[in-house]
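Q: What changes when zinc ion is included in the input?
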Amino acid sequence: MAIARVAMPIAAWQLFDYWIPDGLAIARGEVVRAHLGSQRRIGVVIAIDPRSEFGDRVQPIEAMADVPRLPDEIMALAQFVSDYYQAPPGLAYALATPPLAARRKPSSPTPVPRAPREGSASHALNDAQRRALATIGAAAPRRSPTLLFGVTGSGKTDVYLAAAREAIARGGQVLLLVPEINLTPQLEQRVEDALPGVRAVTLHSGLAAGARRENWNAAASGAAQLVLATRLGVFVPLPSLALIVVDEEHDDSFKQQDGVRYHARDLALWRARRRDVPIVLGSATPSLETWTRARAARYARADLAERADARARVPTVRFVPVRGSGARDGVSTPLWDALAARLARGEQSLVFVNRRGYAPSLKCSACGWEAECARCAARLVVHRDPDRLRCHHCAHARPLPRACPECGNVDLAPLGFGTQRLEQAIGATFPAARIVRVDRDTTRSRDAFSTVRRQVEDHDVDILIGTQMLAKGHDFPRLTLVGVLGADNALYSADFRATERLAALLMQVAGRAGRADRPGEVIVQTDFAGHGVYRALAAHDYAAFADELVAERRAAQLPPASRVALLVAEAHAREDVDRFLDTAFACAGDLRASGDGVDVFPPVPASLARRRGFERGHVLAQSVKRSALHAFLPRWREAIAVRASARVRWTLDVDPISF
Ligand code: ADP
Ligand code: ZN
Ligand code: ZN
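A: The predicted holo structure follows.
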C-alpha cells in the first residue's frame, strides 16, 4: 500500500507518513486532511513512497482537501523557504496552502477575461517613463531584475501599469506586490482605471475568508490577469505569470517578523528567476541590498529623476534647531509661523511625528521615577481619551497614577510629544483649523484611510497630524507644508538599519509636499542638521547617501556587505536565555573549527530585553559569503536543537531587518 509523506503545519522537522486509502488519487502537491495525534490537520503531500519505515503503525489519509493541487513551482518555493530560512517544512508549506473552502459549494463559471483596452484615465508616458519601460523590456532576455529608482511622485505606478498592460496583452498574469493595501486605497482604483477590462484581484490579510478564497482561486486558475497583493501573495500559483512588480521594495513589511521569517521581495526574485519572467523593484529609496546590486550592474536600472507633474517642483527643505530654540509644545517658532501662513492661504499642512499617544513617558519630577511596563523592558506611553498608560509592546494598559509610587509626589509630568499631544496643542493655537490625526489609534476601522483621503481631497482638512502611516504613497495636491518632529531619535538607535530607514521615511514624507502647482516646503526640527541623512534630504539626493551608507556598512562588514542570521531566544527566566545562548555560541565555535569564514558573536540582550514577560537575547552569525553562512546554518540549527530546553523559545532569523 502506497504511503504519502506529508508536511504537517507544526514546528517539527520531520515529515509524517500516512497510507493512502483505495480510491484516493494522491500525488505530490496535493493538500490532504489527516490526524496528527488526536487533532485533524491539513497537510501537503511532499512525496509518495511504496512503504514506510514505520510499517503498519501509520494512519490513513482521511480526505483530500477540496483545493487544487499545488504546482511544482510552489512546492519548490516552499521547500526553498524551509531550507533558506531554516524553517520547519510544515510551517513553510503551510504558507503556500490555499485558503480552504468552508464547505463544498457549486463552482461558479469562471468569467472570460477580456482583452485590455487603452485606458483614457491613464497618462501618456513621459520620456523618462518610456525609457524605463524599455529598460524593463530589455532586461528581461538577460534575466536581470530592474530597479525602478524614481523620486516620490515621478510616476512609477504608471510605468508598472504600462508594463502590466503589455504582459497581459500577451496573455500573461501580473503579480503586483505592495507593502500594505489599506495604506494605499487609491491603488486599486488606479489599476482599474489604467487597465479597463482586466480582471484584477487583491490578496491581503484584511480580506474576508470567502473573498480571499475566491481571489486565490482566480489567480491559481489563471482567470485573474493581475494580482495586487501584500507579502503573503508571493505564494499564490500563477500559471501564466509574465511579470512581477514589487512596489516600495525597501519596505520592512515585506519581511515577516514572526513564524517563518521570509522576505517577500526576495522570494519574488526567486520566482522571477525560476519562471524566467521580468521583475521590477520600484522605490524612491531602494534598500541597500537592491542598491548595491544595481550599482554592480547585476540589476538593470531605470531612473525617474523628476516628478511626473511638470508643474511640481521639489520642496525646499529647512532645518530648525530644537534645543534652546524656545519651542512651544514641541513645535518651533518657524514651524508655528509656517502653519499659520498655510492656514491664511487655505493650503494644507502635514505634521509628522513618529510617536502615537499623548507622550512617550510619564515621569516624577521629584525622584525621577518613570512609568514602566511590568512585562516589557519599556516605558509606558501616556494616552488621553481615555486617560491611560499603555505599553506599545504588549496589551498592558492601566489608569494614570495620581501620585508617584516611589515618593508620593503628585507632580507627574508627561515627557515628550506624541500625535495626541500635538493635536491638542495645535488645536489650541488654531481653534478654527480643521485638524485630523492619523495613527494606528485612529485608523482601526477598515475604511478609515479612505475617509481621511476623501476629507483631504474635499479640502475638509487644514492640518494632518500623523505617524509614518502618512508617509506612504498618498497624493495630496493641496499639501504645501510638511513639518517633521522627533526624527533625531532614530540617530540614537542601536539598530544598524535605523538611518537607512530614517532616510527612506524622510524622503517619503517630504515627497508629500507640493505635488501639483504649489511649491512645497519641508521643515525638519533637528539638532544635527549636518548629519548625512539630513544633507541627503536637503539635496534630494538619496543616491549619494545610499553610496555613503554602503561604504559604512562595508567598513563594518554589515549587510549588504555581509550576510547575517540571528539566533533569537526568549524565556521567562534570564538565566535560561543566557544558558541557552551560551551553549549555542559554544556549539558554533566547535562547528567552525574547520575555518569556514563564518563569524559568530557572543550573546547579547535584545534591544527590547524583555517583552510580554519573556527575557530576550540573541547571537549573531555573519559571513561575507552567503554560501558559507548557509552551509553553516543547518548544522548549527541541528546542534542547537539537540541541546535546547523546553523552557526556551528560539528561532533563526535569516537576513534579519534589524538587530
Ligand atoms: P510614484 O509612485 O512614483 O510616487 P505616482 O505614480 O503616484 O508616483 O505618480 C504621481 C502623480 O503623477 C500621479 O498623480 C500620477 O497620476 C501623475 N502622473 C504619472 N505619470 C504621469 C505623466 N506621464 N503625465 C502626467 N502625470 C503623470
Ligand atoms: Zn517620585
Ligand atoms: Zn508591555
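Observations recorded in class: Residues 109-120 have pLDDT under 50 and may be disordered.
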